[in-house]
Each structure stands twice: as C-alpha cells, then as structure tokens.
Amino acid sequence: MESAEDWLVESLRLYQDFHAFDLPGATRVLEWIGDKGVFVAGYEKLKKNEILHLTLPPRLSVKENQGLFPERDFKVCHGGFSDRSIFDLKHVPDTRLLVTSGLPGCYLQVWQIAEDSDVIEAVRTIAVHEKEGSLWPRIAIFSSVAPGVLHGARLSGLKVVDLESQKVTYTSGVSDSEELSSLQVLDADTFAFCCTSGRLGLVDTRQKWAPAENVSPSPGAGGGRWCAEVRGQGPGPSIASLCSDGLLCLLDPRDLCHPVRSVRCPVSTPSPDPELLRVTWAPGLDSCLAISGFDGTVQVYDVTSLDGMEGHVEPLFTHRGHVFLDDHGTGAAPLVTTHTWHPRKPRTLLSAASDASVHVWDWVDLRVSR
Amino acid sequence: MPEIRVTPLGAGQDVGRSCILVSIGGKNVMLDCGMHMGYNDDRRFPDFSYITRNGRLTDFLDCVIISHFHLDHCGALPYFSEMVGYDGPIYMTHPTQAICPILLEDYRKIAVDKKGEANFFTSQMIKDCMKKVVAVRLHQTVQVDEELQIKAYYAGHVLGAAMFQIKVGSESVVYTGDYNMTPDRHLGAAWIDKCRPNLLITESTYATTIRDSKRCRERDFLKKVHETVERGGKVLIPVFALGRAQELCILLETFWERMNLKAPIYFSTGLTEKANHYYKLFITWTNQKIRKTFVQRNMFEFKHIKAFDRAFADNPGPMVVFATPGMLHAGQSLQIFRKWAGNEKNMVIMPGYCVQGTVGHKILSGQRKLEMEGRQVLEIRMQVEYMSFSAHADAKGIMQLVGQAEPESVLLVHGEAKKMEFLKQKIEQEFRVSCYMPANGETVTLPTSPSIPVGISLGLLKREMAQGLLPDAKKPRLLHGTLIMKDSALKELGLAEHQLRFTCRVHLHDSRKEQETAARVYSHLKSLLKDHCVQHLPDGSVTVESILIQAAAHSEDPGTKVLLVSWTYQDEELGSYLTSLLKKGLPPAPSGGS
C-alpha cells in the first residue's frame, strides 16, 4: 500500500522506535506487570478468548548496547483461555493473581499465573450482586498485604472485597444508580470514580460515603459519555476528564466543580464506541496526557500549552500507525481500543486497535531540537 | 502394533542442533543433521549412537533428508556420513545442494584455521559427502524404494528451504524444518496442501513469540543507515545470502529515490561474482509471482547502487557497502571493517548469526578491542548493530500451517515443554489433535491404523454372490477366505508370517521296512527328477527341494507303507506333482534285495 510506505518513511522522523504486532485477537486491555511485561485479553463473543502475558522485546528494556539485541518480538510468557469477553483486567501487585471483568454474566474472575508452567488458570470467581444486563463492573486493586478488589457497575454497587477471604470490607452504601465508567485507586485509603455522566468523585474508604465531587456534570454533557484519570504526581491540575464529544477538562481535586481548563480536541466525533474512550497521564513527563477512542489514532497533548478558552488546540503528537498499517483493508478503519504509557521510558506508549494490532512507539518531541 | 516413532536426537534441551529420527511403516529416516554452534567439542554433534549401537547406519537408515543449508540443520552431515559412516542417499533441494558445501567449507576453514581444531571433517570429506546427495524438485514425488516416498514443499525462510512429506503406504509424516508463513520480499511464504499426515513435526523455537512486523524491521534498518549517512558516516553490511542482500538493496534504492539522497551505495565484487551463479539457482526456485516482481530485473540495474572497488573504502564522506563474507571472518568485508572500525561515526550492520571464532561473533558479543594478525589491536569505535532478517514461524505461523496441512497429530521439537503448555492447549483445542513435545533423546510413539488394500479373487466374490442376497452398501458382509500378505504388509502390522504346509498320504504296498521303502523312493525320484535336488537324509526321510517325504508303517496293515508327503504352499505345484507320481507306485525292487 503506497500510503503505508509513505507513512513509514515519515515515521523515521516522527518516532525513535516503532514496533507493530498482530495479536491472535484484538484486546481492550493493556495492563503492565513490572516494566517489562503487559497483559492483553480478547473480547470476542461466542469464542474462546486468550489472556496473554507478553514480555516486551529486550531491546526496549536495555539502556546500553541496544544495537546488539536483534530480537524485536514479543514473547508469550504465559497464556490462558476465557469463555467470556474480557473488558478489564487488573494485576494484583506482588502476587501471581489477576482479576478480570467482562460479559456475559456479572461476576469477576480471578486467575492464577502458574509458577512452573506457562499457563494462566481460572481459580475462582467473585460474585457481584448487581444484576445487570449489559453493564460490567469496573475494577481497581487496593494492593496491600491483604489485597482488596474495588468493583462496581453503578455507584450503588461499589464495594471492596478482600481477595483472600472474599469478605466485603467496604461498601458505598448509597442508592444512587449512576453508571460508572472508571475506577482508580489512589492510595491505601482513597479511590476516584468517574461516572458516564461526567460526575467525578474522590472517596475516602475510612469514612462513610462523603466524596469530594462535582455535583453537576461538567458543561457539554448533552448525552456524551465521560471517562477520567487522576495523575500520580506532578505540578498543576491533576485530574483529566474526557467526553465522547471531544471535550477535555483539567480539574484540581480541591475544586472539582470548576475545571481549570476546558478545551475541545480536534477529533472526529461522536466517538463510534464511547466505551473505548481513554485519557491517561504520562508518568514520565510533567504535563503530558494522551487520549484515544475516537478513531484509529492516539493523540498526545501538553496541557501547559492549552489555551484557557475552548479555542483551537493542536495535539503535540498524533500516532496514526493503526490507520496506515491496516493490512486488512476490509470494512471500517480500525479503532484504537486502549493505550498505555511505558512506566519508565518517558515517551514510549503502547496502543491496541480493533484489528488486533498492538504498537509500541517512542515519539519524537519535535519542539526539542536534537 | 503399527506405529510411528519420533526421536529428536542430541543431548540436553539445547536448541540449535536439528536432527530427528523417524520410524514409519518399517522405514527409518533421519531428518536434518545439524551442528550446535555453541559447543566446541562433541556436544555439538547429535548423539548418533542412539540410532543403532551395533549394526551399520547405512543398513538401518533408509535415507537422510536435509531441509535447508543453515549449519544448525546440515553442519554435522560430513561428520555423520564420512566419520561415523553412512553411505545411503541424502535428499535435499537443488539450491541446498549448491549452497551447503560452500557453507560447510567456510565453517571448516574457520574451525580449523581460526580455532585450530583437530579431528574436524576435511574438505575431501565434504566433497565425498555431497556425492551421496540426490537433489529433488518441489512437489516431485521421489520413490526412495518400493514403499518409501518423499515430497518437498516450499518453506520460505531461506533459498532452497523445504518442508518434506515422508510417506509409506497410507501413513505419512510431514517435517517442516524452518519455515515462515509471512512472505519476504524475495522468498514468499511456506505452503502445503491439505495432505492430512498422521503427524506434523515442527520446530517450536519461536513458537511462543509474536513477531514484530516486517515493515518495522525494514524501518529500523533504514533509520540506522539514514542516521549514519546523515552524520557523514559509512555503513558496512556484511552479507552472504544473495537473496537477502538484494532485498536490502531494493529497500535502500527505493528509500534513496524517495528522499533524494546522494551518498553512494556499493555492492562488493565478491558478491558480483557469485551473483550469476545464485541468480540461476534462484530463477528456477522461486515462483512465477516472485520472479515477476523481484527477480526479473537484472541484478545490477540499480540506479543508485554501483560495483565496489576496494580503493573506494578510503574515500571521504558517507557511503553504504554490501560485502562478503557475512561473518567478517576473512576477505573484503573484514578488510573494509578494519579500515572503518576506528571511527564512531561509522556503523556495521550484522544481518545474522556469526559462528564462534569469527570477528562477527566477537563484536556481537560486545568486544570493543580485537586482536588481529601480528598482535595488532583494533579498537572498535564504530557502532555495531545486530539485525535479524531471516524469518521463522511464530505462534501464529504454526497455527496457520497446522490449519493448512490438517494433521492428525502435531509434534513440537526444540522447545521447553513447561514453556509451551499454553501453545499445546491452543493447538489441541483449535484443531482437536494431540500435541507432543518430546525432549531430546525422548521417543514419542504414535499408534496408527494404516489402511491396507486387499484384493479379492473374482471366484470368491462370485461364490458369495451366489449365496443369494445382493450386497447392501450399508451393511457389512462377512467373507471367509485365506488372506495372503506380502512381507511389507506383515511388517507394517507387526504380524508374524504363518507357514502353510500340506501333507498328503500315499499308500504303497511294500512289506519291507520303512527305511528300505524310503530308500526305494529316493532312488526312484532321483532318477526321475534330474532337474531337482533330491536328497536322502540320515534320519531316513527324503527331500525334493523343500518337500519332505517320510515313510511310515501302516498302523494296521504291515504290508502297506504310508508315505507322508509334505510341502509348503509355495511348493504347491511340485508337491502335487510328486504326490501323483508316487501314487503311481514304485518300480519293482531290484531282485537280489532283501
């Protein structure tokens, strides 16, 4: 394909490193284990899906003599089979356990990575008492000596379950049935939630339900679906929320009702599948975030360069690999299903698309003269 | 019990020494005969003593098959055939036959000259070994003997690489060697028909990987070359395989054109000389499509790529040079390397595995100081890049091939069983086949149910039909008869041969003792049957060829003797004749006897 060749030549300038892989099945999950491995999982209906633990090519991990490592391939370290579609997967830190959520059926599956072989086996389920047709519970892990799984499809169903004893250690106790779009554990006692309506909250599990939150949804809600992410550390507003109509808001946790900045991103709207919306903060760069879920691209923004108004914004970088390297040529262009930043390498991201491709790319900051 | 037995040879779990023994339908075939490149002693060779501790390999093995010219598949061949001893046929494709001896000789030179090894195979041994080679064409059914046939299929991977089907009667095994399912620019992808073998044997070294796309590898190559040339540096690319070199040349040429780059690209003379030779091999090997898009153009009709002159190496400014040999162990590539190694702006791109002892191997191990001849120390400041261009089948590729061939069972060699449990489950679930993963030296036995064609005599069929009911296509009918089997079928089924003997009694009037009757029979037959071997044995019995005649007294009538004439089914004709002869009676005894 001519345009693929053109794009590849362009890519010499745009990327330091670029790898492209074809998974056996598309994934909506990219979950890190350490900084050398990721989990992916299939989400097809009516078919056996695979959960794979992949190690990144060694050349991405070494600092020196990178040139002496010819291997550019992912290695399948462990694999398992799931009868259900998997929409979310979390690794329980410092253990060999995974928790997944999907459909059909509203329950969480716990998996164990075998020690002496390469198999990932289902070990038990965690019941979720909400009976929901097409909603699946979001999950986040409280990692500690006794890890707990935070889960829920709606605010009313939010619970923390002890992984070992299966006892419920926390429940939101509210009757509010707003649908959740994301959950994020912030520290040993607090977590953040984001509802599909755009309602955000920070919850302290030591207290009865009294989250710091925005009472009314952010402007521009009009039927759009929201997701959000809280940044670990760094200066400036630490919460980013994204709407399926392209609105990106930056918020300070001390005043969730008034976004510090709101901009409209140049994306094709509405997003064909708002459930795939994702916004992530770069762990290694002070003020960068990435968004995906509108089309076959991932866009990187520098938040300090965004205007205060809903003005004209341009991404710092756009990854178009999934669009140009689409070999399948049949039907719709691929849609990016998820993306994630490399924990250590500041400008390296992984992105996955609906055509089962996974890219590992290290973009060049063109503002910096080399 | 009919079965197929497979044993990967060699000690330990180490990869890198392909040699597999297959027993099928009573035939024994050795698949590949590779050298382990990591060892310097006997561990580099497969353990041939396993095959047969007594007895000659030539008698035991029906043939040897070599899948392609990589040393980990053919490196031990001269050792095996000339030093251990094997005189039977060795099958391989034409390009493999052409290239193997060159690589073996190169390797021998490095081992003996550079590393000073003793007890290595000699140049003459390589030549003698190659004399035993029978070259085969793709998709050509080759009859090794009456029962054993083999057929080669296109495997991609490198020039001349093939997958082989080995067939005895209705049982077959397919061995893949190394192959790849994603096409290269110059090689294309492996292909096999729905041959439904009992067993598919495939290498699984890369079975647990998911391969980075070819485009990204090419991109990486272009990026490295471009960056070096942009900063005024020189790029050296040592190559052996012409196909690979040409592929990279086309890549660079397209890129140079698009980016309007001016730095010169050169193709060294060593390559030029071999070019025509390989070109001819190539042209008959690749398929129509590749020939059209890739091979048709003249080797050196590149706009930007010119023939190299060694004086150019000293020219200032950036350039790219393709030179032989591929491991930097001698010749032009080493010369150029020595000139350019000291400048950090320069780069050498090693496109493949380098044998221990070569400069290529040393720099790929990270060595930055090399001792050259005359104790000169060379400091390496140039950038060293190791790029892997040859394609192997990854997990996806293996699944694709299994889907194409539709075997009853799959056997994975050269992987660690514990690290392939998931793949085993995947294959078993997806294709509903059994998947085996033997360690080196471990034998896998697959029971098979071979189908053996049976001919029925028309008379037998007619007799059955005469019994009334017409044959019903859905209902089986039981026939009674005598089944006669040839040796090979017996062997396949593991049955012992039965001997059918007929015994006939002939009564004679003779009141003499049995021994005398026997003696009369002997002299009578001796005089009549001049063309046959008639003998009188010490125990009194008479033999005509293998027919036995014994005289016994009649239990009730002392005046009658009973001749027991017995013969095997094979001697039916003679036996019947003898019987009728004897029934006519014996000539009167010469008078004067007792």
UniProtKB/TrEMBL annotation, chain A:
Signal peptide: none annotated. GO terms for cellular component: cytosol; spindle pole. InterPro entries: WD40/YVTN_repeat-like_dom_sf, WD40_repeat_dom_sf, WD40_rpt, Wdr73. GO terms for biological process: cytoplasmic microtubule organization. PANTHER family: WD REPEAT-CONTAINING PROTEIN 73 (PTHR46947). This is WD repeat domain 73.
From TrEMBL, chain B:
Its cofactor is Zn(2+). One of its GO terms (molecular function) is metal ion binding. Transmembrane segments: none annotated. One of its GO terms (cellular component) is cytoplasm. It is found in: Cytoplasm; Nucleus. The keyword Nucleus applies. It comes from the Eukaryota. Residues 245-363 form the Beta-Casp domain. One of its GO terms (biological process) is RNA polymerase II transcription initiation surveillance. Gene3D superfamilies: 3.40.50.10890, Ribonuclease Z/Hydroxyacylglutathione hydrolase-like (3.60.15.10). Pfam families: Beta-Casp, IntS11_C, Lactamase_B_6, RMMBL. InterPro entries: Beta_Casp, INTS11-like_MBL-fold, IntS11_C, MBL, Metallo-B-lactamas, RibonucZ/Hydroxyglut_hydro, RMMBL. Keywords: Cytoplasm, Hydrolase, Metal-binding, Nucleus, Zinc. Residues 16-233 form the Metallo-beta-lactamase domain. Signal peptide: none annotated. PANTHER family: CLEAVAGE AND POLYADENYLATION SPECIFICITY FACTOR FAMILY MEMBER, INTEGRATOR COMPLEX SUBUNIT 11. Component of the Integrator complex, composed of core subunits INTS1, INTS2, INTS3, INTS4, INTS5, INTS6, INTS7, INTS8, INTS9/RC74, INTS10, INTS11/CPSF3L, INTS12, INTS13, INTS14 and INTS15. The core complex associates with protein phosphatase 2A subunits PPP2CA and PPP2R1A, to form the Integrator-PP2A (INTAC) complex. INTS11 is part of the RNA endonuclease subcomplex, composed of INTS4, INTS9, INTS11 and inositol hexakisphosphate (InsP6). Interacts with WDR73; interaction is required for the assembly of the RNA endonuclease subcomplex in the cytoplasm. Belongs to the metallo-beta-lactamase superfamily. RNA-metabolizing metallo-beta-lactamase-like family. INTS11 subfamily. This is Integrator complex subunit 11.
